[in-house]
Design goal:
The structure is a homodimer. In chain A, about 15% of the residues lie in helices and about 40% in strands. Chain A has about 210 residues and is an alpha+beta fold. In chain A, the strands form three sheets. Chain A has a seven-stranded antiparallel β-sheet, with helices on one face. In chain A, strands 2-12-13 form a three-stranded antiparallel β-sheet, with no helix packed on it. A two-stranded antiparallel ribbon of chain A has the order 8-9. In chain A, strand 8 and strand 9 form a beta hairpin. The radius of gyration of chain A is 18 Å and the shape is globular. Chain A starts with a strand and ends in an 11-residue tail after the last strand. Strand 11 of chain A pairs antiparallel with strand 1 of chain B, so a sheet runs across the interface.
Chain lengths: ~210, ~210
């Protein structure tokens, strides 16, 4: 049986019910941990499910930051230092990654609280040692979305570390083989099972 | 074995290799078909993997549109009419959905070419009858990302149709039970296996 909801039905939903409902509607989401430090070097770690590919050249990824959420320390740090890391969440680290979404005090390190390990490379922002796919990012732009006072934070990929074995011959990364997970809504995590890669689509191939 | 790639390594990648490589780095993506009509009522259908949740109240979803890609007719139609549909791709319709990414001529309907069925409700834009989760959207804002001349298209959810059985008691939608799929990179589709929902994270719960 199907249900249809219109604006007036959404309007009367209890706030938390509506958050769960609407958060699931865009489809599956990525799961990344953002590692930052503030100007004094205090570490922060935050899970985000809104990372989205913006372009390959330059290599840009955006994510959405809500006002007054747990990511606020992350955003302040990114604006202060211009640098951050993105670290894929894999199936073996879901509980620790989710715990980073708790509202810790400003100078509490989510690394310490979650048992995840900071890993420093050439830059000032810490990676998550447990992650298999790790990106170092430079802030490029913050766009304000006036409609709901969110920010769309755009960064350029500076460095990528990943298992050599997941790189296909044509450059595709088999992220499922690195056990990267998908998220739906606010709190459900999913492993994946590939249905395979499809050929570049061309017109006049007949109905699939 | 791990591999590390820096800016100079990305810079020398062949264009198509780099597209595959970078497109996989943000993590898993949503899979939605966008249904539109132009001012004369000609239908268009396009798959997008960049839909991202922006907020629950108002209920906003954004997606990214590259210049001169197959989505250009979609964007022109959205700007002309202000309305579009988002339709989750499920496991039984992956091939047809992917085929909609071919570069068809302007007045060719991707519905006809892919075998997917237009379904009209109260609005002018067609849903995809085969989809189990269908949203009717009103255009709210187009943000230009100057860094790479992409557009971030923001719409507000006007109507939602979905199987009643996937609505959890607290409003969470069990989209896996509707066989919604995830995408990685440009051409790989994935079904999912839930690892379960996690409780709202609070500080001082101990290391997970």
């Amino acid at each position: 049986m199907q249900s249809t909801f219109r604006l007036k039905d959404l309007a009367i939903m209890e706030q938390r019910y509506r958050a769960h409902f609407v958060n699931s509607l865009s489809g599956f989401k990525s799961a990344n941990l953002i590692g930052t430090v503030d100007a004094q070097g205090n570490e922060n770690l935050s899970i985000v499910s809104s990372c989205v590919h913006l372009g390959a050249d330059p290599a840009l990824i955006g994510f959405v930051s809500r006002p007054n959420t747990v990511e606020r320390h992350t955003i302040e740090n990114i604006k202060a230092t211009g640098e951050y890391t993105l670290n894929h969440v894999h199936a073996g680290m879901i509980n620790a990654a989710h715990q980073s979404s708790a509202r810790y005090a400003r100078h509490t390190s989510e690394f310490t609280e979650t048992g995840l390990t900071p890993l420093y490379g050439e830059g000032i922002a810490p990676f998550v040692a447990q992650s298999k796919i790790r990106l170092y990012m430079s802030l490029r732009e913050c766009l304000t979305i006036e409609l709901n006072s969110t920010e769309f934070i755009i960064g350029e990929i500076q460095q990528v570390t990943l298992p050599s074995s997941i790189i296909a011959e044509d450059g595709k990364l088999l992220i499922e083989n690195a056990q990267s997970v998908a998220v739906s809504g606010l709190d459900e995590y999913h492993t994946t099972q590939t249905t395979g890669r499809l050929a570049y689509a061309k017109p006049n191939q007949g109905i699939p």
